[in-house]
Amino acid sequence: MRKSLRQKNIEQKLRQRSYRERLKRERKPSRDDCARALLHTYFLKFAEDKEVAQDAIDGIVKKLVRQGFAEEPCYEVLDSIVTKYSKGKWQFRRKPHLFGSGMCTSDG
Fold first, then answer.
1. DSSP 8-class letter at 97
2. Angle of helix 71-86 relative to helix 50-66, nearest 10 degrees?
3. Measured between alpha carbons, how far is residue 50 from residues 47, 56, 71, 105 in Å?
4. Which end of the chain offers a freer environment for a tag, N or C, measured as fewer CB atoms within 10 Å?
5. Is-above-0.70 flag for pTM?
6. pLDDT under 50 in the chain at which residues?
7. Cβ count near 60 (within 10 Å)
């Protein structure tokens, strides 16, 4: 017998909750955690070279356009991210719940 869509959604929600809890217990970063750290590192270390930064942004936009996004809004979003990071007003989002056991430093 086939499960209803509602039942499948409930089971998926439980699997996701269990998965997130396991990652938290194992202190294992998600893909998004790694991507945020990579993005933060990129902007802090390499974005001072405007030509390198623009080449990277152009490459990202090309990939987003291939996924079906419109080019101009891609540039708008990426430019806003660059501006927020480069002005120093937007800090890397820390995971304070990880600090308790000494496994995570305040490096950001």
1. G
2. 140
3. 6, 10, 20, 30
4. N
5. no
6. 102-108
7. 14
